[in-house]
Amino acid sequence: MTMTNPKIPLVSKESVEFFASMFKELDQRSYDLLRKATLPNDIHKETNYLCLPESSLKNFMEVLGESLENDRLGIVFLRSCRETFIPKMVGVLTQNQSLKAALEEFCEVLKQESTGAHVCVENSGGKWWLVRHKSKSDEVWFKYAEMFSVMFMAELLRVLTSNRWTPTIIGIQDSSAEDFKKLPTLGKATFSVERPVTALEIPQPLIDLPINLQSVEQSKLLLGQLDLGEEASYVDQFRLAMRPYLSMGKLPITLAAQILRTNVRTLQRKLKKEDRIYQELIEEMVFDEIKECLTSTDFPVTQVASQFGYSDSAHFGRSFKRVTGLTPTQYRAQRA
Questions:
Q1: Are residues 95 and 20 in the same domain?
Q2: In a 10 Å sphere around its CB, with 0-12 CB exposed, 13-18 middle and 19+ buried, how is residue 317 labelled?
Q3: pLDDT tens per residue, range 231-260
Q4: For the segment 183-215, what is each residue's pLDDT rounded down to a tens digit?
Q5: Is the dihedral of CA 206, 211, 212, 214 positive or negative?
Q6: Based on the domain organization, do 218 and 249 belong to the same domain?
C-alpha cells in the first residue's frame, strides 16, 4: 500500500538520478550544481539507498531554472522526456484496452516512483483530462516543476496515442502562460491560467482508443519496495529521506532542514513528538551505515572513516568505541 499522505514525501533514487542528469546540459561542473541543489554527490553511482526526499527535486528545479534560459530549459525537458523518462514509464505499462486504462495504470505506477505524486484521469465539464494535483506554491521551484509536468504529460499522451493526440486546452496553476507557450511542441495550445490543478484535455474519441504497447523489458520500480503504510512514523520517513546524505557524516541540523525545505525549529519539534533528538538520531543513523560498511566491505578502516566525514582516524576510532563498545577492527572481526 502506497502512502497517501506522507509526512516526508519521497521519490525514487532512480527518478532523482534522471533529473540530475540534466545538469550535463550546463557548461559548469556537475559537482558544484549537485551540492547547490542538495543532491548527494554519489547520485549517479550504485548506492545502497532507494529514495530521496521530494524536497531534493524542488531544490534541483530551482538551481536548474536559475541556470538555463526558459527556451533552452524547455528543450532539455523535452529531450530528457523522450530519451529517458517516457520510455521507462511506458515500458512498465501492461494495459492496452484503451488510453484511459493505460493512463490509470500509469498513475498507479507514478505513485510508486514518488509518494507525493497525484496524477489521475478525470472527467470534468463533459471533457476528459489528464490531471496533476499539486498544492500551489509561490516558491521558485513550482513554476519549473509545472513546466516539466506539462511537457512530460504531453509527451506521454503523444506516445500512447501514436501522435494522434495534439495539445488543445491546457490548464496551469501559474498566473502567466508566457513561458509555457514557449515550451517545444506546445505553441498552438490554448493555456488557461490560475487553475486549481494542472490539466491537459483528452478528446473524447481518444479516451477509448486501444493502445499498442511495444514489448519493452519492465524496469524496476524502486519505491515499490517502500511499503511503509499509513502508520509510518515521521522518524521512519526521516531515516529514509536522510540516508543518501549520511556519507557526509553527521549532518548539521541546518543542512538537514535545508534539504527538507523546512526550518530547524519545525524539524526539532516533529522529532520531539516522537521522543527523538536530532543529534542523537543522526549519529545513530551514521553509525548504522558505518557498521554496515565495516561488515559488508573490506575497505581499510581509514577509508571507512574518511567516507563518513572523519578526517582523523583516531577520533573516528574513539567515537566508534563510545557508540559500540568496540574498536572498528574489533567490530569487524567479531562479525566476520
A1: yes
A2: middle
A3: 568 888 898 888 888 877 778 999 899 889
A4: 988 888 999 999 999 999 999 999 999 987 753
A5: positive
A6: no
Q: How far is the C-alpha of 116 from the C-alpha of 312, rounded, in Å? A: 40
Please give the single-letter amino acid code of residue 176: S
> Based on the structure, what is the number of domains in the chain?
2
d(CA 307, CA 301): 10
Answer for the pair 119, 110: CB distance below 8 angstroms, yes or no: yes
Q: How far apart are CA 241 and CA 54, in angstroms?
A: 8
The C-alpha cell that represents 145 in the structure block: 516543476
C-alpha cell at 124: 470534468
Give the C-alpha distances (Å, rounded to integers) separating 53 from 82, 152, 306: 25, 21, 25
**How would you class 322 by CB atoms within 10 Å of its CB: exposed for 0-12, middle for 13-18, buried for 19 or more?**
exposed
Average confidence (pLDDT) over 61-84: 85
Long-range contacts of 70-76 (CB under 8 A, 24+ apart): 70/147, 70/179, 70/182, 71/182, 72/25, 73/144, 73/147, 74/147, 74/151, 74/182, 74/183, 74/184, 75/184, 76/22, 76/25
- Phi, psi (deg, nearest 5) at residue 164: -75, -30
Residues 85 and 192 occupy one common structural domain: yes
Range of the domain at 183: 10-223
Give me the amino acid identity at 138: D
